[in-house]
Amino acid sequence: MSSHRGPLRKTSGNRLTAIMQVRNEAGRYLEQVLEELSEFVDDIVIVDDGSTDHTAQLCLSFAKVKKLVTLQSSLFNREWELRQTLWELAVSTNPDWLLSVDADEFYEESAKREMRRLIDQDVYDWVSFRLFDFWGGTTHYREDEHWNIHTKHTRTLVRYLPNFHYFFPKMDHHVPRLPLSYSVLPGFLTELRVKHYGWAISPEELRRKYSRYLELDPEGRWGSLEQYESILDEQPHLVEWQEEL
């Protein structure tokens, strides 16, 4: 019997696999993220980066979590290795399409509805979305010179091509979430939106996050020192979110 997968690019029947790296996310947004993902993806693959809470058990309570690996020691300070580990685990499942999701990201309803149409085609191999950084809560996003990722496109959905060369830049922090090699393949830029709640936290938590960034990257080698400083802005420019149903 042949083990041939069939055509590299299928126009129907594609499975969608969400991939995540998590660390001490219990009691935050992870449960809600997994509930939402379970509505519109087929499988979920997770690397738990040495959590010390019950993050792993929470993940395994969801039927669609097909693979979970817990690292005994955290790769937090070698992020490219963490990305690589998650990628290798994900592709070991022989996936069709991979959706890279953080433990505090939510796809808008219109984006969820479009997912099948985005993957059941043979024209492009990746899809980008508009990512919005919510700030101080879940009603407003931040928009200024340092916080404007939503004006650009972020590649989070990719077709897996088994014999393609994949690589991540060897960076300690701020590593692209998917292999850079996708940039040479044909892609599709959508206006569909993703809500990022990583900054939807209290002023005290913002200060702690600021301190952590400076500790990890005191010279701004992996990111921008100006952006780190802007975390402490007392009156950031916020825009009210309008959900597109």
Automatic annotation (TrEMBL):
Keywords in alphabetical order: Transferase
InterPro entries the UniProt entry points to: Glyco_trans_2-like, Nucleotide-diphossugar_trans
Pfam families in the cross-refs: Glycos_transf_2
Gene Ontology molecular function, alphabetical: transferase activity
Domain Glycosyltransferase 2-like: 18-166
Keyword check for Cytoplasm: no
Transferase recorded as keyword: yes
Name of this protein: Glycosyl transferase family 2
